[in-house]
Amino acid sequence: MLIGAAALFTLTMALLAAAFLRRRAGAAATMRPGPWLVGGGLVLPALVLSALLAFALATGERLLPRPGADVVTVQARAAQWAWTFSQQGPGGTIERVGTLDIPAGRPVDLRLSSADVIHSFWVPRLAGKLDAIPGRVNTLRIEAAEPGVYPGQCAEFCGSGHARMRVRVVVHDAAGWAAFLQGATP
Ligand SMILES: [Cu+2]
């Protein structure tokens, strides 16, 4: 979108500069405005907005927490002042405090809940914020393309320990994920 907007901005500014230069040179107005109005005012925006709409619909569909065979589900419980993540491994429930382990390239549904006040799960490189509210469960769909460590921070003021309520998302490659599920935590 930035590249597209920059290109359109450059085109508009070039046309504006051309209009001023022609006027200064005293050239006769030989350009017919009709095609420019139809092309730049109707056809071009229709094409750009249609492409953006299609892209946004496809992206939005992928972000919806729809059930699927390869979806990983993690319970994320917030409490003053830490996140506890638990998920099912072959040997039972795996639970970690402050660190969320997920596989790369697979959709993950985080089931956010809170034991006390409102917290907010926020890992900027993976998704927008979503609140964890006492008495209900909010589902956040995330997906990380690349293995690595992604830091995050509770984004809703939740008491004196709020600033220290950090979270770390460890995204594993296939081998690391298999090791994690077996209970070996790096
Ligand atoms: Cu918090």
Helices and strands, in order, run as HHEEEEEEEEEEH
**CATH fold-level assignment of the largest domain:** Immunoglobulin-like
SS summary, helix count:
3
The CATH fourth-level homologous superfamily of the largest domain = Cupredoxins -  blue copper proteins
Going by CATH, the architecture of the largest domain would be Sandwich
The share of residues in extended strands comes to 25-35%
Strand arrangement across the biggest beta sheet: 3-2-1-5-8
| The CATH C-level class name of the largest domain | Mainly Beta
How is this structure best described in words?
With 186 residues, the chain is of the alpha+beta class. The protein folds into 2 domains: 2-63, no CATH class; 72-181, Immunoglobulin-like (Sandwich). The chain is built from 3 helices and 10 strands. The strands form 3 sheets. The chain has a 5-stranded mixed sheet, with no helix packed on it. It is elongated. The mean pLDDT is 90. Copper (II) ion is lined by residues 78, 81, 119, 154, 156, 158, 162, 165.
